[in-house]
């Protein structure tokens, strides 16, 4: 038999739709039993019509189930009494199904319809999509978390830069103000034999008698030591203040007159005018 | 539903339960297929009241004839669908139904009711309904005549004005289109879901 021709004749569709004659039905059923391809084709046709029927699915009224289950219980009852061969109803053997029985059974049977080809395919596609989606979610979640961390770092760095910039700006503005005011003398202090490459600048505003030290290039003070500025007045060093931190510019003590300035490395806390510099002079310059 | 023990049973076991006339089997059958059966019945009889009667008659017929069901000949769903369909078609062809529906042109009636009852395959939610409407094959007509109005092949030949000999091939191409139509729907839904992630 030419199975392809048989399948394409349309008889299988008519069979599924119950349109075949008794003879045709018997023939189709015989062929189904003999040829798995025909059986597979029948299932595909059934599936198409089942899907079509499901398009029209409509929830029946809630009470219909009780009514139908009761009708089936009656059916069972009549069969039982027929089998017993007596005309009397055996009412205690099969009771009417009550609402309670239907809804509060301990054991609920659930039925999973046989997976059809399309349903299997849809199920497989759904699983594949679910897995893809979960994977994508994990990837995006990780990326998002990474981005959050990077953003936090960038934000704190940005904040530091802004703060530094403000400090620098304030320092430069201050320095510029000082440099632009009349009567300001700029004294360059140059490196002494201890540290020939060291240098610093002293701004001496003779009008307001303010002294600033700036642009210091000194070796880092070892722990327990601190730089101290001295003014040479009447041939003697006078304490002009301690230099703390790495600040660009420091306002120091004021003087009526000075002929030179110098910076020495002292014990933390510095020395006094009475004692004079005890440590070595690092930079010095004449007014 | 808390506290209830659920047992998943296979179609094979369900058929065994049904064939042993176990009430639980019919309860499970009802829970799984009642809306599909009721929808088809309603599409044929167009009355909730008559549909409920037809549902009951269908379940009684299933009960009485379930021994004759043979899994090798087809799916359980198709078997019970055919019982419900035949019961409903018998109903609309019965004398008392005919009397109550006098002067109603059935096929016109079918079309007006359809739009009210055929929304449960709800693709609206993902905006596909329009595409699907366009794809819905004109072949639907022949399927509807056979499936919901119980036309015989001769009646179809007369209604569609085609020779009886070509009815089978027409049915074949109609159902092939139906198959393609569902595959297209599945693909469209798949495409919609995928596009959500792109």
TrEMBL record, chain A:
The organism of origin for this protein: Pseudarcicella hirudinis
A Gene Ontology term for the protein's cellular component: plasma membrane
Anti-sigma K factor RskA C-terminal domain segment(s): 125-281
GO terms, molecular function: sigma factor antagonist activity
The name this protein goes by in its record: Anti-sigma-K factor RskA
Superkingdom per UniProt: Bacteria
UniProt GO BP: regulation of translation
InterPro entries according to UniProt: Anti-sigma-K/W_factor, RskA_C
UniProtKB/TrEMBL annotation, chain B:
Occurrences of domain RNA polymerase sigma-70 region (ranges): 29-96, 133-180
Alphabetical list of InterPro entries matching this protein: RNA_pol_sigma-70-like (IPR039425), RNA_pol_sigma-70_dom (IPR014284), RNA_pol_sigma70_r2 (IPR007627), RNA_pol_sigma70_r4 (IPR007630), RNA_pol_sigma_r2 (IPR013325), RNA_pol_sigma_r3/r4-like (IPR013324), WH-like_DNA-bd_sf (IPR036388)
Taxonomic superkingdom: Bacteria
GO biological process, one term: DNA-templated transcription initiation
Transmembrane annotation, as ranges: 178-197
GO MF annotation terms: DNA binding; sigma factor activity
Keywords, ordered alphabetically: DNA-binding, Membrane, Sigma factor, Transcription, Transcription regulation, Transmembrane, Transmembrane helix
Family: Belongs to the sigma-70 factor family. ECF subfamily.
Protein name: RNA polymerase sigma-70 factor, ECF subfamily
Organism annotation: Pseudarcicella hirudinis
């Amino acid at each position: 038999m030419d199975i392809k021709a048989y399948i394409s004749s349309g008889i299988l569709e008519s069979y599924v739709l119950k349109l075949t004659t008794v003879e045709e039905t018997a023939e189709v059923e015989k062929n189904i039993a003999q040829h798995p391809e025909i059986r597979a084709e029948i299932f595909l046709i059934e599936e198409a019509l089942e899907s079509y029927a499901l398009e029209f699915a409509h929830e029946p009224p809630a009470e219909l189930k009780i009514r139908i289950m009761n009708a089936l219980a009656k059916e069972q009852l009549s069969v039982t009494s027929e089998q017993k061969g007596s005309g009397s109803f055996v009412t205690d053997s099969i009771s009417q199904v009550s609402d309670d029985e239907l809804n509060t059974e301990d054991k609920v049977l659930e039925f999973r319809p046989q997976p059809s080809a399309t349903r299997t395919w849809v199920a497989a596609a759904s699983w594949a999509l679910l897995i893809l989606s979960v994977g994508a979610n994990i990837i995006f979640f990780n990326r998002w978390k990474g981005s959050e961390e990077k953003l936090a770092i960038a934000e704190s760095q940005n904040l530091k830069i802004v703060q530094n910039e403000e400090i620098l700006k304030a320092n430069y503005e201050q320095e510029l103000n000082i440099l632009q005011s009349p009567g300001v003398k700029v004294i360059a202090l140059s490196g002494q034999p201890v540290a020939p490459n060291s240098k610093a600048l002293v701004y001496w505003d003779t009008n307001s008698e303010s002294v600033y030290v700036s642009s210091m290039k000194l070796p880092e003070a070892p722990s327990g030591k601190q730089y101290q500025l001295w003014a040479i007045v009447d041939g003697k060093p006078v304490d002009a203040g301690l230099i703390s931190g790495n600040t660009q510019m420091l306002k120091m003590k004021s003087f009526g007159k000075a002929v030179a300035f110098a910076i020495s490395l002292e014990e933390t806390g510095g020395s006094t005018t009475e004692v004079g510099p005890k440590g070595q002079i690092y930079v010095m310059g004449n007014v | 539903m808390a506290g209830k023990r659920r047992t998943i049973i296979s179609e094979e076991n369900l058929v065994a339960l049904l064939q042993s006339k176990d009430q639980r089997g019919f309860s499970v059958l009802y829970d799984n297929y009642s809306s599909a059966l009721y929808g088809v019945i309603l599409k044929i009889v167009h009355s909730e009241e008559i549909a409920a009667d037809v549902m009951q008659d269908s379940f009684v017929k299933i009960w009485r004839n379930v021994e004759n069901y043979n899994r090798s000949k087809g799916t359980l769903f198709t078997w019970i669908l055919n019982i419900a369909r035949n019961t409903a078609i018998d109903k609309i062809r019965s004398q008392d139904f005919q009397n109550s529906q006098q002067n109603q042109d059935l096929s016109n009636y079918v079309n007006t009711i359809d739009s009210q009852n055929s929304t449960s395959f709800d693709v609206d939610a993902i905006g596909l309904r329009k595409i699907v409407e366009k794809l819905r094959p004109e072949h639907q007509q022949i399927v509807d005549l056979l499936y919901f109005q119980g036309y015989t092949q001769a009646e179809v030949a007369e209604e569609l004005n085609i020779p009886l000999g070509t009815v089978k091939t027409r049915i074949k191409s109609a159902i092939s289109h139906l198959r393609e139509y569902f595959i297209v729907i599945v693909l469209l839904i798949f495409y919609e879901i995928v596009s959500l992630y792109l």
